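Dear U.,

Please find below the material for section 3 of the report. The protein was modelled together with S-adenosylmethionine; I have listed the sequence and SMILES used, followed by the predicted complex structure.
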Amino acid sequence: MKAEWIARQSSRPQGWPGQIVARVMSYETIPVNRLALDELEVDDDESVLDVGCGHGRTLAALEREARAGFMAGIDPSEVMVSLASRRLRKARGRGRAEIQQAESHRIPYPDGRFDAALAVHVLYFWPDPARDLAEIRRVLRPGGRLLLGCRPDDAAARAALPSSVYALCSPEDVEKLLLAAGFDSVSTQIHQLGEAPFACARAEVGAAAG
Ligand SMILES: C[S@@+](CC[C@H](N)C(=O)[O-])C[C@H]1O[C@@H](n2cnc3c(N)ncnc32)[C@H](O)[C@@H]1O
């Protein structure tokens, strides 16, 4: 079982312990974020929002791949915003990236701003996931898509992650939440990474959505 203080720091890194957790996390989550990006299939010139962008490593990878695109990250943790801002410094200077301190239930962008969004290992920390998903949908254009990545609820995840911090969801519940938030064409891939499964739910905003 992950110690509760580490779990709390993972949910919103703060202070010097948060700096350490953030740095470890930035390596640990490379494989799952790679899967998420592969499933999101971002074109060269697209605008992408990383919700709970943390350390910014995923945005930096995207920035290298989508050479004509725009990358935005939001995160409520000052530690994470500072790390991601430093990592994306050059891209920010060129107007190709922005990092903002914000939560996913109040995203500081207008309706339809993004072609795609991802949120990896964030869903567990939302007190009201339906509200946050509806807000992510709002900032996606008609035809835009979201990739929601999380550890699915199972006995191993429950044994590893303290329930006082991690609200785990089954893949079926995640799909229901996405549909309730107004997304269409929801599908889930379960990947096996070492001993732990990782669920990638991909959802689209209907082309006629206004
Ligand atoms: C486990 S980390 C994952 C970071 C990154 N997505 C990754 O895969 O490495 C969870 C992140 O979500 C952020 N977070 C927590 N609650 C959030 C919320 N309501 N809105 C946006 N981000 C949130 C935390 O500050 C933290 O940076």
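For the text of the report, you could mention the following: The chain has one domain: 4-204.

Regards,
Y.
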